[in-house]
Write a structure and sequence with these properties.
Helices cover about 50% and strands about 10% of the residues. By secondary structure, the chain is of the alpha/beta class. The two termini are about 35 Å apart.
Length: about 300
């Protein structure tokens, strides 16, 4: 559903009082975004001093209260706690009678669908899973970044339109994810986003070791182009020594990594093997060049001698 396709007025949520349980980086930003859409944040809970300060900055004048009090005050409650804490929180709120019939209960976990809210559903709540596919900074800039952000949406069929309408009101793009597909969906996002951060951080460390004064400036255009090409063309965007079958260059890489940053070797070899497999499958890596390359990757040591390539 595109943001240009506004929901029918009867499917739009009424102006709601909003509460946040868990003032991490996500909850206050979503509540602030809902406030811009006309909803009214009325309560927030946070445990650490950092989360409390974040809530005060993002949601000024909204009182900080215990979780049960958040549910008592709000018609729409955002449960924005870590994944592992979510099932216990829901069960506890339901068992203590904090959940009210007709209350919209929204969690933002990528891992879980709506079933994790079943204890609240049995208490009469309306369960929604709305996961923003974005990294958050915990600052007001997050509210702006929600514009055009995709949300993984899972909810009972009768609540689907309401869930999608809430996402649209926050400026996002709803993407329906079936309950049983939530773990795979979340794994895909972690593979692409979380591991990317690790790869970039390692690359910057190695460039500094090589004497590059501003590795971020060097990598910015290269990584930006690589990401854009990958999103546009998928595997056809593969370049570099692995896709070309430059076994000598890859062997030289492994030798240098073992010397300067041995902790990166396992990751380099794993990603190079995955790249080689995909390049072979898509006809980018010539079979006659693959044998020596795969030998280098299997041994993790110097293989054939070859001219060193570049990062084209």
């Amino acid at each position: 559903m595109s943001t240009s396709q506004q929901p029918d007025p009867k499917d739009r949520p009424a102006r709601l009082t909003v509460g946040v349980v868990g003032a991490g980086r996500v909850g206050p930003a979503l509540a602030a975004s809902l406030q811009l859409a006309g909803h009214r944040p009325v309560a927030v809970s946070g445990v650490s001093d950092t989360s409390r300060r974040r809530a005060e900055r993002m949601l000024p004048d909204v009182p900080l209260v215990p979780p049960a009090e958040v549910l008592a005050r709000a018609e729409l409650v955002l449960l924005t706690v870590p994944d592992d804490a979510l099932p216990g929180l829901v069960e506890g709120l339901a068992e203590t009678g904090a959940v009210r019939p007709g209350q919209l209960l929204v969690h933002t976990s990528g891992r879980y669908g709506a079933k994790v809210l079943d204890p609240a559903l049995r208490a009469g709540a309306l369960p929604l899973a709305l996961h923003p596919a974005m990294t958050f900074t915990g600052t007001p800039v997050d509210v702006q970044r929600l514009a055009g952000c995709s949300f993984g949406v899972t909810a009972p069929e009768e609540l689907r339109l309401a869930a999608e309408a809430l996402v649209i009101e926050m400026g996002g793009e709803p993407e329906w994810i079936a309950e049983e597909m939530r773990p795979l969906y979340h794994a895909a996002l972690a593979l692409g986003a979380n591991h990317l951060v690790t790869l970039v951080a390692q690359s910057m460390e190695l460039l500094r070791e090589a004497g590059v004064a501003a590795p971020d400036r060097m990598l910015g255009p290269l990584l930006g182009a690589a990401l854009d090409n990958a999103l546009r063309s998928g595997d056809a965007a593969l370049t570099g020594p692995v896709a070309r079958g430059d076994a000598g260059t890859v062997a030289a890489h492994v030798t240098e990594l073992r010397r300067h940053a041995p902790q990166t070797v396992a990751g380099y070899l794993a990603m190079a093997r995955a790249t080689a497999d995909r390049a072979l499958a898509h006809g980018l890596l010539k079979p006659e060049l693959a044998e020596d390359l795969l030998g280098v990757l299997a041994n993790g040591t110097d293989g054939t001698n070859g001219a060193e390539g570049d990062a084209r």
